[in-house]
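Quick illustration, no need to memorize.
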Amino acid sequence: MRTSTLGRGDVPVTALGFGGAAIGNLYTPVRDEEAHLALDAAWDAGMRYFDTAPHYGLGLSERRIGAYLRTRPTGSYTLSTKVGRLLEPDGGGGDDSADGFDVPAATRRVWDFSAAGVRRSIEESLGRLGVDRIDVAYLHDPDDHAQEAFGEAYPELERLRGEGLVGAIGAGMNQSAMLTRFVRDTDVDVVLCAGRYSLLDQRALDELLPSAAERGVSVVIGGVFNSGLLADPREGGTFDYAVAPPELLSRARRLKDLAERHGTTLRAAALAFPFGHPGVTSVLVGTRSAAEVTDTVRQFTAKVPAAFWQEARDRDLLAADVPVPSEQEPYA
């Protein structure tokens, strides 16, 4: 699988990365052995970039990914996690369903973008992961914490990078505006943009992607299916974690029909689309089973004909100035 390095540094990522939220029991439980098999399938397919966060299952995703990667040679993979939410003990019982994870609520999340909070978060993630270094550390969803994120959290990540405790630093969000500020005003290596560069939503093309290209900052794309609509555009399907409005559902269905007429699938087109922009380095996809991994890799490596992209433009399903992948330059 194609590998690129992040920013101006030397941290490599594969074009397709393993997103760890699903094996943190996102929405439904996943057994330990199922998570292990999913990770094994990803490894066998050539994926070497694994992303997680304390938020995912209150540390469960970190523990599972860490346990798996300890069976692989050090230096043979890239591991990213995130800072911004500390896990504090909580004796109240119950579960974490309110935050979307099917796990016991033995701990609770506390927002903390202070310098001390960032360092503590990294140290605790190192413990859960069972490693002595983090390849990539992202500020996680600092939307409502801009002052602290830029004033304390980011400088602490710089210090951690300087100390060698983390290899590359960045921010991960579901918006592009603040990520653009990180690109322009800091020395991040990479930004993780979820949901804002897809077949249905290209807001990252306005400022984020051009700014990242100008500054030499890598862009990792998450949420290429926009929380489900581009995987299965059914009635009641979700876009950005809410029921999709009728106009988006109609557009997704038209894209699906078009893809099938050109001998491909909507999922294959959704996975391929971000790589039309040269600033996109990797796409992260959350999978919870070996079967889901195998299907994702199959869709990712499928060819999407140039005629599909052209007709999508002709039918106003994509704007004429939106870049699309080339068949002559494989992204997988």
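The radius of gyration is 19 Å.
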